[in-house]
Amino acid sequence: MCKETRRIVQLRNVFKSFKTGDVVTEVLKGVDLVLANGEFAVIFGPSGCGKTTLLNIIGALDTPSSGSVNVGGQELDRMNRTQLTKFRKDKIGFIFQAYNLLPTLTALENVEAALELLPFASRKEMKQRALDYLSRVELSDKADKFPAQLSGGEQQRVAIARALAKQPRLVLADEPTGNLDEATSERILGTMRTLNAETGATFAIVSHDPNLAELADRVVQLSDGKIESEKTHP
Ligand SMILES: Nc1ncnc2c1ncn2[C@@H]1O[C@H](COP(=O)(O)OP(=O)(O)O)[C@@H](O)[C@H]1O
Ligand SMILES: [Mg+2]
């Protein structure tokens, strides 16, 4: 296998700044990062250091101020709108920090919504997939609840099921255990690790929870806008 296909993500010298009024905040200051296909990587960094910004850039939800982003062998800045939409839909499972569930859909419908554009033989098969993933995050009994009827941790698990159900090649998870108690967090991360092993999907998880380090193939530290050090587990 050639080198390029083993790399699912490659960021080269990525800078990102935000301008609010006259104030420019430099968030990413030359990030270089490679994620290998199938890897389970955790990116740590304190609150405000740019973790969400970094994930948004990898997932094509935002663009860097400069530098290049290559995902799955494609330079994102060379893709047009239609290609980017397809890329997000087909390749990426995004677990948002704020869940972003649709309030008027039930837990099951939220997961199904992410599957709607995928080719399923039947509606029934799609529902079965959604139920399977709700079960993996231990929410089978809450399938018919609306987000407002669920706790923060339960909403987070629906968001996880929604991202994973379409079986994306790349899962980008923004503090996916931020609202889970320790025991639940461990089980849900175990579920992700199992899926990673079963499907070979790549996981990039950003977090400030040090408990996550144990599970990772690789731990990356984001500090002062750069990747500071990397620790690789054997
Ligand atoms: N859209 C935006 N406009 C202006 N500033 C932003 C925007 N998004 C993020 N920032 C700023 O960039 C910095 C990093 O934010 P973020 O990536 O959310 O950090 P983290 O996820 O590590 O907590 C923060 O100072 C934040 O206020
Ligand atoms: Mg964040």
Summarize the structure.
The protein has 234 residues and is of the alpha/beta class.
Molecular structure report:
The chain is of the alpha/beta class and 234 residues long. The chain has one domain: P-loop containing nucleotide triphosphate hydrolases (Rossmann fold, 3-Layer(aba) Sandwich), CATH 3.40.50. The protein is 33% helix and 29% strand. It has 7 helices and 10 strands. It has helices at residues 3-6, 51-58, 81-91, 107-115, 123-136, 152-165, 182-199, and strands spanning 7-20, 23-36, 40-44, 66-71, 74-75, 92-95, 170-174, 202-207, 218-223, 226-232. The strands form 2 sheets. The chain has a 6-stranded mixed sheet. A 4-stranded antiparallel sheet has the order 2-1-4-5. Strand 9 and strand 10 (226-232) form a beta hairpin. Helix 4 (107-115) crosses helix 5 (123-136), helix 4 packs parallel to helix 6 (152-165) and helix 5 (123-136) crosses helix 6 (152-165). Bound molecules: adenosine-5'-diphosphate and magnesium ion (MG).
Strand order of the largest sheet: 6-7-8-3-9-10
What bound compounds does this protein have? adenosine-5'-diphosphate, magnesium ion
Helix content: 25-40%
Main beta-sheet annotation: 6 strands, mixed
**Count of helical segments?**
7
Low-pLDDT residue spans: none
Structural class of the helices, strands and pairings?
alpha/beta
Question: What would the average pLDDT be, to the nearest integer?
Answer: 92
Topology, number of strands: 10
Task: List the defining traits of the structure above.
10 strands; binds adenosine-5'-diphosphate; globular; alpha/beta; 7 helices; binds magnesium ion; four-stranded antiparallel beta sheet; 33% helix; single chain; Rossmann fold; 234 residues
